[in-house]
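Sequence in, structure out. First:
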Amino acid sequence: MKTQNTILNLRNTFRLALMVTLICSMGTVFLLYAAPAQTVTLTIVNNSSREIRALYLSPAENDNWGADQLNESAISPGATRTLNITWEQSSVKLVGEDQDGCFLSTTKSVTSNIEWTIASDAPRNCGN
């Protein structure tokens, strides 16, 4: 009987240790992915020959774009625009729409200052 109680105690101890390990692991994963919202300075440098008419933000891993960040105020060729945005994730996808309705995009790590320089040879998605 004593041996059977010892085996039961060992099983219960193992189960408890496993449960604590799983809970701690889940908490660590949650903390890694639940970054607090931070205000970020985003600078768009338009070194292309095209006007950028809209700028959208999306989580890096999908295409759920938010509202136009330029509020219908285009960035002319050779111009720079600085915006303050609030972002909760560790990276952000920036999507610009040019005068032809084509899209340019890049993914950036979120730091206190993000800069995206759009060059004339930047690849565009024109839906073809």
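Second:
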Amino acid sequence: MTLVENGDKVQLSFEGKLEDGHVFYKNNDANSSIIIGKHQIFPTLENNIVGMKIGETKTVTLEAKDAFGEYNEELLMSIPKEHIHLDGNTTVGNKIVIDLSEGKKIKGVIVEAASDIVTVDFNHPFAGRKVTVTFTVLSIEKYDLQ
């Protein structure tokens, strides 16, 4: 019987849910694969996949720190409207993207809007929340991590 080891290419079906039952991701086909040891998913999930066999299913609940991170109040920022390009789109709940240096971008959500300032939350939308992931190993293939 083949068990998942570090370096294997593993095809998975999986479903991620928030504590309230909201499904934030679901994949039931064999088109989703990861390579164990390349850190393509949360480390806690990757560690739970090691040792599984084809057809085996597990459900793992991740604390916020092991999933999308703790909610960070420092990522809640008030920005003068003149410093960002909003095209007049300052409605609470609207998503914005701010261009940083070297082509990097940061995404946020407007959580408060005044006449001259907007407050933007740059946390991941699921920051601070536990998630439960159920996954099934569909196939295991040896892969060279080199």
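Remark: The chain is about 5% helix and 40% strand.
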